[in-house]
Amino acid sequence: MPSAEAMVAPCSMPYCKGCSHGLVVRALGAALEATGLPREQLCLVSDIGCVGLIDRLFPTVHTVHALHGRSTAFASGIAMADGVLFDGALKTVVVIGDGGATIGLLHLVAAAQLNVDVTVIVHNNHLYGMTGGQASGLTPEDWITATTPVGNPLPPLDLVGVLRSSGATFLAREMAMNRGLADRLGEAIAHPGFAVVEVMELCTAFGVPLNSLNGKKLKLLAEQTGEPLGMRALDAGRPSFRAAWKDKHPRSGAGPQWPETPSTGALSLDRPLRFVVAGTAGERVQSAATLLARTAVAGGLFATQKKDNPVTQGTGFSVSELILSPEPIHYTGIPHPDAVVAASQVGWDYLVRTGVAARLDEQSLIVADEGIDLGAWGEGAVRLPLRARVRADGAALAALGWLAARLDVLPLNRLIDTAERAWGDKAGRSVAALQWGFEAGG
Amino acid sequence: MNPPTGRLLTTGNAMSAKAALDAGCRFFAGYPITPASQIFGAMTATLPSMGGLAVSAPDEISALALCIGASLRGVPSMTATSGPGWCLMVECFGYALMTETPVVVAVVQRLGPSTGAATQGAQGDIALVSGATSGAYTFPIFAPSTAAECYADTLRAFEWAERLRTPVVVLSDKEVASTAEVVELGGLPQASGAVRTAWGGGEGFRTYGWEQEADVPPFAPVGGEQVVTVTGSAHDRAGLLKKNDPETLANLRHLQAKIDAVEAEIGLVDTDIPEGADTLVLSYGVSARASRDAVAQARREGMRVGFANVRTLFPVPRTALGHALRGIDTVVLPEENHSGQYRQALGDVLACIDVRPVNRIGAAIKPSEILDALR
Question: 278-337 in B: which are within 8 Å (CB) of A?
């Protein structure tokens, strides 16, 4: 293994006396040197904390000093882009502390799942050093820290274990003092997927004095918690993010072109018409309204369609507010609908609850399935056996067909054209529903 | 490629995604949220076959962090979210601003606070979005009011993000982004391609190497031949952390100065102001749509009323608004929030003008409410 001298700047280490960070910096320098890669193919992404002071020490490679805990996510973005959009030559290494690994745990888990070509070196000195020695998620049980003066009540997170179960393809756990550390870091960096090396460290400012810690005790501690010290696990079988992506996403073209817009000859309309179509989610309320809107647009008219549904997608009401107009439409609200379609009880109840029904006046048409209880609005409403004749998922379409005929809005052949263009071979039942409604309204 | 013709029935979200692709966006990381998920879906469906990347992030923090990483590598990048997701993105957004990393965030507003109402519209995030950075640094925020403007403003967002090396927000709202409407393709602007100010090579590179404070420093990508030093901590032009240093403070002033310097050029306000008008309806986003109807009706009633649709909310388009406000003594300012967030942001731009706010929450402001304020 080459020495770190060529890689690490000859300035003094910015760490406390005896801090293990310096050992890891030297090992990392030697490991990077040993890759033999050009400097511009190496990128160090540093987290916040004492580990984050590393950029000054590696002036010849790319460095990104990130946010607390987010270093792995930034590195993942760099590595994904490099792997798929470039030649994948860049080696990206994250240096992060146990505090950063705590706040940014999900980013480590995600990087392991993705198996992105990032090596994460976790400098585990078991507490937050830069902020005054507070407990992190990796602080050992019973440890004294600034925030656990009577001992840490929590078990430490087994980080390597968590990342193993997240799909990490290279895992190692080492002492900072281990002479073999540089080789182990080198193996991790050479690995084409996600690699994590947890390095056990001494924090001489807090961990050592508060817990009478020394190198021997640290080793004992490391052996008592988590995955075995000195372990190295490699899963070479799982493809890297780059390999998996290239396999699943062969480049096939220049991307989407503007869709061909059918133009079916001008339709005319002498005034805007505003419909509220209400039914039940999953019963094709929206696609029925879209059909009218598309037909109008193909005929040179203007249309807007506003969807409303509960936060759940597949249950409860589904309401579509549809405006057809000879002029451009700006305000898309419908304070006073020309017509309301009630395709199901659930839809109608929503219109009552939200005040739409209360705003209906004598000019407003109500077209409702005959089974719906319309309450005070029953008188004067058009009642049709929608659900019985064209089933639930044809009810809205049939009612709109009825309206198209009765108000002389859109011709049946154009509506059928649109349905066949949209649904092809599967348009049969929709066309039948439209036809039935249109004839009933004609 | 010939300019497109014809017309489409489509949504603002779909147009935003199409614009991103046309502008050269090749990396998208997303996390699902109503009413912005449609952009995520469109990018997932299209980017991979174009040789681009569209990935799912485990949260919004990751989504923006991944985009920033890709952009540092030199790839135009985008994510999309709504108010609750924006709250998580704020940390990384400040990082993008500080590190001068281009990225576009589409924020589709819904009713808040907190989780609010996922499927209900609002214009309640003007202050939340514009105030995202400590120190209140200005970054471009564009506000489309139609699906066609979603296309144009997303194109603009990429062009400015890359040119200024800054994060940019396209701030739409549920109604504008997810209501289907007609887009006349012939009326859309042509994508000119977003171009990042690039380092040309040679000696003397510094990661943040501006000469004048208002300059945009030439960009070199992580992984490129020129080694870079990127940091979100207060830094000198070399990208090295330096506290209490004159160059570091100058670098912070530079972040604001480069935006201020383009105020007149980036400021976009669509106006329709008849000769002799002394009253102006000034709005943006969904409320601009009702404003158009209200102004048309007011003119039919004989009022001489102007209309201004503010497309660049920030930096406050002082130059364009200065022109629009010439001879105006009354401004009606509708926005779908309870406190008039953009009215407050305009501050002294509206000094000496009788301002009549029209505010409501829970539903789009109606033309009749704006007419009431005009009468």
Answer: 289-290, 292-293
* Distance between B355 CA and the closest CA of chain A, angstroms: 22
B290 CB neighbours in chain A (<8 A) are 330-331, 333
Share of chain B above pLDDT 70, in %: 99
User: Does domain A21-248 sit in CATH 3.40.50.970?
Assistant: yes
Which residues in B lie closer than 8 A to residue A81 (C-beta atoms)?
27, 53, 69-70, 73-75
In chain B, the percentage of residues whose pLDDT exceeds 90 is 95
Among residues B130, B164, B187, the one where a domain terminates is: B187
Asked if B252 and B131 count as a contact pair (C-beta separation under 8 A), the reply is no
**B70 vs A contacts (CB less than 8 Å):** 77-78, 80-81, 85
- What residue in A sits closest to B367 (Cα-Cα)? A331
Q: What is the per-residue pLDDT for B3?
A: 64
- Domain membership of residue B218 (yes or no) is no
Backbone angles phi, psi at B189, to 5 degrees: -70, 150
% of chain A exceeding 70 in pLDDT: 99
Q: Which residues of chain A are within 8 Å of residue B95 when distances are taken between CB atoms? A: 66-67, 70
> Which carries the bigger pLDDT value, residue A225 or residue B167?
B167
Smallest CA–CA distance from B179 into chain A, residue: A306
Model pLDDT, residue A10? 83
Cβ–Cβ < 8 Å for A215, B14: no
pLDDT in the model for residue A7: 87
Q: Any idea where the domains of chain A sit in the sequence?
A: 21-248, 273-441
Topology of the domain covering A273-441: Pyruvate-ferredoxin Oxidoreductase; domain 3 (3.40.920)
Q: Which two tokens stand for residue B266?
A: 């980036």
What is the C-alpha to C-alpha distance for residues B329 and A361, in angstroms, rounded to an integer?
A: 39
- The parent domain of residue B304 ranges over 269-374
CATH of the domain at B53: 3.40.50.970
Contacts of A329 in chain B (CB under 8 A): 181-182
CB contact under 8 A, A77 and B66: yes
pLDDT for residue A262 is more than 80 = no
Summarize pLDDT for A51-60 with one digit per residue, the tens.
999 999 999 9
Q: How confident is the model at residue A280 (pLDDT cuts 50, 70, 90)?
A: very high
Domain count, chain B: 2
ipTM of the complex: 0.97
pLDDT one-digit tens code per residue, B284-319? 999 999 999 999 999 999 999 999 999 999 999 999
